[in-house]
TrEMBL record:
GO BP annotations listed: iron-sulfur cluster assembly
Keyword Thylakoid: no
One GO cellular component term noted in the UniProt record for this chain: cytosolic [4Fe-4S] assembly targeting complex
Signal peptide: none
Domain of life, per lineage: Eukaryota
Protein known as: WD domain, G-beta repeat protein
Protein keywords: WD repeat
WD repeat coordinates: 258-290, 348-389
SMART domains reported for this sequence: WD40
Length: 525
């Protein structure tokens, strides 16, 4: 049983106002801090009004008890780590002994071989006259050459014998070291601890999501977006776009259906400042939509890119550019919303296969792209205001990124395809560095996502992060250190084919689910 050694020192605490009198009581009302709470006998006598107090002895006992509980908590938490370290130490000591024995055996074989070679030389120190006299009448060169052949063969035989012995010892050594993979054990324990921490961060006492409404929607809906005032929702319904009104946390069918695409709509992005949005789809088209009146929207520019399906589509924060991905290429388009005009700006062509996710930071200094070629590329702006390749970002796990999103100007989150883990990257010393200690392990860690739509969403107003992985949708909270923690239990959508978004104010989450073929509206508490 762990025994706490915590002591709260109170004997040296003396009143500064009354000539070093010892403190006797502590105010426990709000509005006081530190030494302002402490009172000696004269302070108590001078006190006016009614205050909640406790004796300094009781306060010290409470503090000691609380600190002991905190200490016990961390002792319990690190107990398994200490056990792991002890096991690794035992294995290391055992390995050290085995390796020492093997190296000793190797050195012994080298010594034995050296002795045999010395013995071969020493044989010439003694000779039998009766045997050697018969060779006196032969050519000396021939005698020496013949003896060299005999000695060479003996040395080759020794080489084969000792080479086999050394090889067997070396293979044994390699096998022992291969079986002792301390890095894997550390990684397993680290993931186990990360899971414990995430589980502890989840607030089990209440759900942060309240389901408000379910509305049937038979056609597949792959993209959803809200206007600037959160009063209108646009949803891609196969090749059409359906407009919904959103009032009192509920969806109301407006009856407006926008036609212009000839294949499934995959991307929808609303302006944060205008009654305008842009759509992209499998038909390789980008279409700008402008609201004429409460009942009418107009597609003013139909841009057939001819560059491949539109997988990703984002607006820059300044809303002066659209950035889209088309197979392995990223296209940048200049945008004038008031004139509803799009013009080609540049192409970013460093990926070798499908670009699966793109994101831009709020300052518009960094653009990140992730593709199925397993590359994570950082683009930056030059003085010419054109984007240029800066570097390929190193990541610990060699897998392609399904979703990438900035949560601050210098921090982004990457979710890979083959595991339910959020990897955090910080910008330090001129480059983005992965921070494994900040990673978040999701409930569906071992599941492959296999879907690319429903992008990760960070809402700055509420400091919340929405993450879809497999059949689950998670709400995470960001703290002031850019650390994410899972907030409440995730939503289970029964199918990995679910697509959604949140309102701009961060109050509502809307998900379309293939299994139920309906919109589910949630209030984020």
């Amino acid at each position: 049983m762990f025994q706490s050694k915590i002591k709260v020192e109170i004997s040296n605490l003396q009143c500064n106002k009354h000539f070093g009198n010892p403190y006797l009581q502590i105010k426990i009302d709000k509005g006081c801090n530190g030494i302002e709470r402490l009172m000696c006998s004269e302070c108590i006598a001078d006190q006016r009004g009614v205050y909640n107090v406790m004796s300094i002895v009781e306060a010290s006992e409470r503090i000691q008890n609380l600190k002991s509980q905190q200490q016990q908590q961390i002792v319990d938490f690190i107990k398994s780590q200490k056990q792991m370290l002890e096991k690794l130490r035992e294995k290391t000591n055992s390995l050290q002994s085995k390796i020492y024995e093997l190296f000793s055996s190797l050195n012994q074989k080298f010594d034995d071989y050296s002795v045999e070679l010395d013995n071969l030389v020493a044989e010439y120190n003694f000779c039998d006259l009766l045997k050697e006299i018969n060779f006196l009448f032969e050519s000396p060169n021939q005698i020496i050459y013949q003896q060299f052949l005999i000695d060479s063969e003996r040395i080759q035989a020794m080489n084969r014998i000792y080479s086999s012995k050394v090889n067997n010892l070396t293979l044994t050594l390699k096998s022992i070291i291969a079986d002792w993979n301390v890095q894997n054990e550390f990684d397993e324990k680290f993931n186990e601890i990360s899971t414990q921490i995430n589980d502890n961060r989840i607030n089990k006492n209440h759900s942060i999501l309240t389901k408000i409404q379910e509305v049937k929607q038979q056609q597949s809906c792959w993209a959803i977006a809200f206007n600037k005032s959160n009063s209108i929702m646009a949803a891609g319904c196969e090749e059409n776009i359906k407009i919904w009104n959103f009032q009192d946390n509920k969806l109301i069918d407006s009856g407006i259906v926008l036609k212009g695409h000839s294949d499934y709509v995959q991307c929808l992005v609303f302006s944060k400042y205008h009654d305008w949005f842009v759509s992209g789809g499998l038909d390789e088209k980008i279409i700008c939509w402008n609201q004429i009146n409460i009942k009418k929207w107009q597609g003013n520019q139909f841009l057939n890119t001819g560059q491949g399906i539109i997988q990703c589509l984002i607006l820059t924060p300044a809303e002066d550019q659209i950035i889209s991905s088309h197979d392995s290429k990223i296209k940048v388009w200049n945008l004038n919303i008031e004139c509803n005009m799009i013009s080609f700006k540049q192409s970013l062509d460093m990926h070798k296969s499908t670009v699966q996710s793109i994101c831009i930071n709020e300052n518009q200094t960094f653009l990140i792209s992730s593709a199925s070629d397993n590359k994570l590329i950082l683009w930056s702006k030059k003085s010419s205001q054109e984007w240029s390749y800066q570097c390929t970002i190193n990541k610990i796990t060699n897998d392609c990124g399904n979703r990438v999103s900035f949560i601050s100007n210098s921090t982004f989150v990457l979710q890979l395809e083959k595991q339910g883990i959020l990897h955090i990257f910080n910008f330090e010393n001129g480059e983005f560095i992965e921070k494994p200690e900040l990673k978040v392990i999701l409930k569906s860690e071992k599941e492959q996502d296999r879907t690319l739509l429903f992008p990760s969403i960070f809402n700055k107003k509420k400091n919340i992060f929405v993450q879809k992985h497999h059949k689950y949708v998670y709400i995470l909270k960001k703290d002031n250190k850019n650390q994410l923690s899972i907030n409440g239990d995730p939503i289970s959508c029964e199918s990995k084919f679910n697509y959604g978004t949140i309102t701009n104010d961060g109050n509502n989450l809307i998900i379309w689910n293939l299994e139920s073929r309906s919109f589910n509206v949630y209030q984020i508490n």
